[in-house]
Specification:
Strand order of the largest sheet: 3-9-8-7-6-4-5
Number of strands: 12
Structural class: alpha/beta
Order of helices and strands: EEHHEHEHEEHEEEHHEHEEH
Distance between the termini: 27 Å
Number of helices: 9
Strand content: 5-15%
Length: 337
Amino acid sequence: MRAFGTDFAVPPGYLNTPSVGIPPAPVAEAVAESVERWRTGATRPGEFDPYVARSRAGFARLLGVDAERVAIGASASQLVANVAAALPAGTRVLAAEGDFTSVTFPFAANPGVTVTEVPLERLAGRVEGHDVVAVSVVQSADGRIADLPALRAAAEAAGAAVLLDATQAVGWLPLDVAWADWVVAAGYKWLLSPRGSAWLYVRPDAHERTRPVAANWYAGEDPWTTVYGLPLRLAGDARAFDLSPVWLAQVGAAAALEYLDGVDLAQVRAHNTGLADALLEKLGLPPRGTAIVSLDADPGRLASAGIAASVRGGRVRVGFHLYNTVDDVERVLHAFE
C-alpha cells in the first residue's frame, strides 16, 4: 500500500506497531543493499559512519535539538543506564506506576536510589520531594499520554531533573521536549527503524550528571583514533555516551528518520488518533486522543480475524500508525460481532 508519500508492505489488520513498526520500502531496501554488501565481502567499517551521523541528526530534528546533544545506542535501557548509574546514593526517583521496565529497572538497579511509583495521573502532583522523575511520554500498555506541561512546571518548581522515554511517542506525536534533562527512544516501533537503533538526548547542563557506563572506542572525539590504549579520551559532547553502533540498524534508521522528517507529524497524529478514536466510538467507549488502544477482548478471536496485536497487562493492545486505514478498524469491529 501507499501512505504518506511512500510504499509499505504492511498486511491488512497489522495493528502491532507498539511492538514492531513496519519500515517503508526505501528503508527495507537500504538494509537489504547493506546486507548484500556484507554477504559479498564488500563491507568496510568506516562506511557506516555517515549512516550514524544521519540517524543522529534525524532524531535530533524530530526532537528539535542539536545533533551534538544526541548519543546513539542499541536499546533504551542501555542509554537510560547512563543516567541511572550516575545518581548518587540517597537520590529519590519518581516514576509512573506500571511504566515500561526499561525506564524503571535501570534506576531500581542502583542500590543507592529509591524509586517511588505513583499513578500516571498523579505524577506531576507528587514531584515535590523527589530528585528525578523518569516516565514514558506515552504508556506502552495502554497509550495514556503524560501531562508534559504539568510535569515540566512541577519539576522546575521542585528543582527535579526529568528523564523522558519517548519510544511510544516519537514518530507519531509532535514533541516539545528539549526542556527535559534526558530524552531516550528506541527506533524499532513508531520510528520504523530496525531493532538495534536507539538515541539519548542529553541537555547540555545534564552532561556532567550522566555517566558513560559503557565507555568504548566509538565514544571518542575521533573514534578511529581511540581504538587502542589509554588514557580515556571521550568526545566532549553527547557522543561520549555513544555505544558502538549496530551497523545494519543504523543504515535503516538513517533512511527511516529522514523519511519521517519530511512528514507532517501533526497529520500523522490526526490520522492515527482518528482511527483509534473511531474504533473506541464504535465500541461505545470514549475517545482518548492516543494512537494506542487497550481493549478487553479475546486475543485468539482477534488473531482469527487476521489482526496482529499484542497482549499487555491482560488486555489486547492495538496501535494505529500512518499505514493503517479504516479497513483495519472494521476488521477489529468484526472480531467483536
